[in-house]
Write a structure and sequence with these properties.
Structural class: alpha/beta
Low-confidence stretches: none
CATH topology: Rossmann fold
Mean pLDDT: 90
Largest sheet: 8 strands, mixed
Strand content: 25-35%
CATH architecture: 3-Layer(aba) Sandwich
Number of helices: 7
CATH superfamily: Vaccinia Virus protein VP39
CATH class: Alpha Beta
Number of strands: 8
Order of helices and strands: EHEHEEHEHHHEEEH
Shape: globular
Length: about 230
């Protein structure tokens, strides 16, 4: 997200208990967090009680009526909307067309599990012991990750266009077990914005491994012993 921050106003959708909020609050002038769960908003309010630039809202899981039109420069959601079905993704995208500024952009982590409906259905029909073993080994889609079975990356591209937005980048990736590209990250912007361009796509089949490898590379402990 380095290209899009720092930002003026950032909207975080479904922050949970603030795993990413702790970083986003320092990368914008104003941060708006919106979550379906009151306990998540309460936890964030307490955790970040010293931050004066955060506004908190509870919604119904799909409405952004509390956000002013053309007021948001950057939207961020990670490891939350992967559980949301197509109708929820559609509702948010339809509203983001109006909430984003002229050059506003959204970074949305969502499901692509709908691309593997046959494997998902087989995993549901097998005895739990067999299904668990096959999911853990990556032979079948991992249902325990609770990715929405109704959403695909192609759906998000289409829904963005129908909402008057452009999906300008999409990475489809695996999560924990196997090579199934059950997740996707889409970069969405208003049509005609300075970020608008033809769609660029990529795939990452060992996302969890790459994340761990990168974490080790940049961890403070990896620099131990160097002279200061």
């Amino acid at each position: 997200i380095h290209a899009f921050v720092p930002a003026g106003t950032t909207l975080e959708l479904a922050p949970g208990f603030g795993r990413w909020t702790q970083y986003l609050k320092d990368l914008c002038d104003r941060l708006i967090v919106v979550d379906l769960a009151q306990n998540c908003i309460d936890a964030c309010r307490e955790r970040f009680r010293d931050a004066t630039n955060i506004a908190y809202h509870v919604n119904d899981g799909r409405s952004l009526a509390m956000i002013d039109d053309e007021s948001v420069d950057f939207v961020f959601s990670f490891d939350s909307l992967v559980h949301a079905d197509t109708d929820v993704i559609d509702a948010y995208l339809s509203q983001l067309r109006h909430k984003l500024t002229a050059d506003g952009v959204a970074f949305i982590h969502h499901s692509n599990a709908g691309a593997y409906r046959a494997s998902s259905e087989l995993a549901r029909r097998l005895p739990p012991r067999w299904a668990g073993s096959l999911m853990h080994s990556g032979v079948l889609v991992d249902l325990t990750a609770w990715r929405s079975p109704s959403v695909t990356g192609d759906d998000v591209i289409t829904l963005s266009r129908q909402a008057g937005l452009s999906c300008v980048a999409q990475e489809r990736l695996s999560w924990e077990n196997g090579y199934y590209l059950t997740d996707a990250i889409s970069i969405v912007t208003r049509q005609g914005s300075r970020w608008d361009r033809p769609l660029a796509t990529t795939t990452t089949r060992r996302f969890a491994l790459e994340a761990r490898r990168t974490a080790r590379l940049y961890a403070r402990s990896s620099f131990a012993g160097l002279h200061r």
